[in-house]
Amino acid sequence: MIDLGLDKLALIGVVALVVIGPERLPKVARMAGTLIGRAQRYINDVKSEVSREIELEELRKMRTDVQEAASDVEQSVAQELAGLEGDMRDALSNPLLEPGQEYSAPDPVAVKAKDFRKKRLARTSAIPAWYKKQHGRRTRVISGAARVARYRPAGARKSTVSFH
Question: From first to last of its 164 residues, what are the pLDDT tens digits of the chain?
Fold first, then answer.
């Protein structure tokens, strides 16, 4: 700003005292102070408004950059999904085939043998009896007549008559 030293301020004060006069000098000094204060507040308001606008413009630019990045990511994900979907359709239309290989139905005897081996392994594997009992697997096989006799209601049981 303007470089005002002590000697220059004293000179301005003496000139103002001579020109304005001692009666009106305090009133003019108050008015000058008020005007300078208003000017400083106005300048500070303008500075803060300009800085807010600059920050707002930076935020807008940042928002557009983020939106562009998000749309790029969305497009790349959509392309990848479309490619994977096409690959899945190809795989489902001809499962486990190499290029140039033709599809042949599995041998029914081999399928039955594989199922038999699975079932036998499940029956004879080392599963604890408590686990079989808890999950409803039979540990012992009993005949139909023995099962009926065992689970017959108590009132319906025949009493055995013994002849002595």
Answer: 567 778 887 888 888 888 888 888 888 889 988 999 999 999 999 999 999 999 999 999 999 999 999 999 999 999 999 998 888 887 777 656 666 666 667 788 888 888 888 888 777 777 777 776 777 766 677 788 888 888 887 776 666 655 65
Same domain, 84 and 38: yes
Which domain, by its residues, includes 40?
A: 6-93
Instruction: Tally the domains of the chain.
Output: 2
Question: Where do we find the tokens 């500075």?
Answer: 47
Q: Does 27 share its domain with 86?
A: yes
Burial degree of 25 (CB within 10 A; 0-12, 13-18, 19+): middle
Q: Tell me the pTM.
A: 0.38
